[in-house]
Amino acid sequence: MADKQISLPAKLINGGIAGLIGVTCVFPIDLAKTRLQNQQNGQRVYTSMSDCLIKTVRSEGYFGMYRGAAVNLTLVTPEKAIKLAANDFFRHQLSKDGQKLTLLKEMLAGCGAGTCQVIVTTPMEMLKIQLQDAGRIAAQRKILAAQGQLSAQGGAQPSVEAPAAPRPTATQLTRDLLRSRGIAGLYKGLGATLLRDVPFSVVYFPLFANLNQLGRPASEEKSPFYVSFLAGCVAGSAAAVAVNPCDAPLAVVKTRLQSLQRGVNEDTYSGILDCARKILRHEGPSAFLKGAYCRALVIAPLFGIAQVVYFLGIAESLLGLLQDPQA
Question: Are 261 and 130 within 8 A, CB to CB?
Answer without folding.
Answer: yes
